[in-house]
Amino acid sequence: MRTLWIVLLALLLSGCGYNTFQTTDEQIKASWAEVLNQYQRRADLIPNLVNTVKGYAAQEQAVLLGVTEARAKVGSIQATPELINDAQAFAKFQAAQGQLTSALSRLLVVAENYPQLKSDANFRDLQAQLEGTENRITVARNRYIKAVQEYNITVRSFPSNLTAMLFGYSVKPSFTVENEKEISHAPAVDFSAPKVPAPAK
């Protein structure tokens, strides 16, 4: 009799989305880990990038400081696995990463005004690495968004929503549309931006 109840319970849970919750939850965790991995890769590039720019454009203190402070703010946020279950904490993380993206964009715009910096092999290499990393961030974020979307649909749909209530599964936060537009393009030099006069030699 006990075996029969176990079989019936297994059939009930599988029919109500329990297995789907397990699968999609693991997909979200894996996707989130990759997002963090790529963000960390970007953060690791920044000190060398800032130091290289500083060697040619030390007077651009406001821009250099902006990048450094934005990186520090990102680093101060504990990106634990639990963060993806906390909408408020997720929003703070997202905002900090968005600020860092903007700060890097400003840095690359400033770099356009220094021909010697642009021709520096180390700077070109760092710029290429940054662009590649931003592209990987976009791919990782898109995978995360899709995984969360699939999970959230299951949470909201009948009869799996009953399973969600029974086992405490709730909707997970994702990247907002506004933030997705901002980060869908890697930081790039805006050639239409006003030029900052180069310092007199």
What does this structure look like?
The chain has 201 residues and is mainly α. It has one domain (19-183): LemA-like domain (de novo design (two linked rop proteins), Up-down Bundle). The chain is built from eight helices and no strands. The chain has helices at residues 2-15, 18-56, 61-76, 87-111, 115-119, 121-156, 160-167, 177-183. Helix 2 packs antiparallel against helix 3 (61-76), helix 2 runs antiparallel to helix 6 (121-156) and helix 3 packs antiparallel against helix 4 (87-111). The termini are far apart. Residues 4-8 and 179-201 have low confidence and may be disordered.
**CATH superfamily, please?**
LemA-like domain
Which spans of ≥5 residues are poorly predicted at pLDDT below 50?
A: 4-8, 179-201
Termini separation (Å)?
A: 91 Å
CATH topology: de novo design (two linked rop proteins)
CATH class: Mainly Alpha
Taken from the alpha-carbon principal axes, the silhouette is elongated
- In angstroms, what is the radius of gyration? 22 Å
Task: Give short descriptive properties of this protein.
201 residues; mainly alpha; de novo design (two linked rop proteins); elongated; disordered C terminus
